[in-house]
Inverse folding.
């Protein structure tokens, strides 16, 4: 079986214990758990800041760490299995277990429960926080982290609960968010990142990249069946149907998340990516 380096942790010198018998490596390891402690960090194919990112991990997400060297950690994300390198400084092994997740595109962390305080960080939708307490200031409720930082309570829900089951409505909340290759946050997002994050925020798992999504996300449908919530794939691109005539997608043409007439998009995209390669309907 051919293994995908994006989803399987293996190198000549080291590989995941789960891959014994499938790959050859100098040694195998089970890895150690860790958690992301910065708002967003890029996951790269090489331990090199000049290397482009494959995807991003968000505050509070879990990873398995297989190796640490020269300030870099080689990890596998728990959420979607993606493998890559990130700065070791973005990790902690003793971080509090998350209890809530951010359900708005972007929100702020304050040094205390007051929106007049200078912002200490910004968090994306999908970030996971450990709520240690609550406070109220001038009628606004805040969740408190163990270190005293605060986030607006109305911007979060307990893990496992969701604001809506309409992932198209979630995706639409990112309209005009800048396009970012490898992006997966409210600060910058790419086509498959938009699909994945929107589905995740309704409790549905999705692979990270467009080729993975096109190969197995939901059920295959015909072009004539397209309706709201269906997915359209090109070689290297993905979009969501906002209705039977309108495509919602993060794209390099407008460099934003945008709405576009579907037929016009097919013609415009065709010169670079040819015609769509398939259509799928996510499982409810």
């Amino acid at each position: 079986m051919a293994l995908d380096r994006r989803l399987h942790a293996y190198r000549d010198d080291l590989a995941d214990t789960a891959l014994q018998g499938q790959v050859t490596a100098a040694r195998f390891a089970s890895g150690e758990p860790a958690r992301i402690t910065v708002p967003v960090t890029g996951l790269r194919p090489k331990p090199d800041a000049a290397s482009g990112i494959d995807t991003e991990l968000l505050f509070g997400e879990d990873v398995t760490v297989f190796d640490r060297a020269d300030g870099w950690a080689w990890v596998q994300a728990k959420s979607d299995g993606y493998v890559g390198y990130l700065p070791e400084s973005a990790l902690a092994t003793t971080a509090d277990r998350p209890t809530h997740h951010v359900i708005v595109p972007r929100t702020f962390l304050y040094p205390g429960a007051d929106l007049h305080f200078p912002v200490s960080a910004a968090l994306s939708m999908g970030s996971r926080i450990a709520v240690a307490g609550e406070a109220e200031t001038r009628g606004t409720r805040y969740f408190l982290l163990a270190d005293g930082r605060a986030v607006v309570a109305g911007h979060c829900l307990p893990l496992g609960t969701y604001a809506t089951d309409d992932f198209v409505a979630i995706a639409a909340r990112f309209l005009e968010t800048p396009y970012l290759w490898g992006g997966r946050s409210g600060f910058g997002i790419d086509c498959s990142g938009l699909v994945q994050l929107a589905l995740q925020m309704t409790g549905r798992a999705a692979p990270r990249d467009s080729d993975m999504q096109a190969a197995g996300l939901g059920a295959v449908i015909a072009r004539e069946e397209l309706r709201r919530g269906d997915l359209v794939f090109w070689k290297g691109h993905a979009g969501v149907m906002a209705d039977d005539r309108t495509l919602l997608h993060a794209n390099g043409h407008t460099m934003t998340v945008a709405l576009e007439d579907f037929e016009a998009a097919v013609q415009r995209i065709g010169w670079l990516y040819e015609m769509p390669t398939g259509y799928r309907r996510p499982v409810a």
Summary: The chain has a mean pLDDT of 97. The chain is about 10% helix and 35% strand. The CA atoms of residues 41 and 57 lie 5 Å apart.
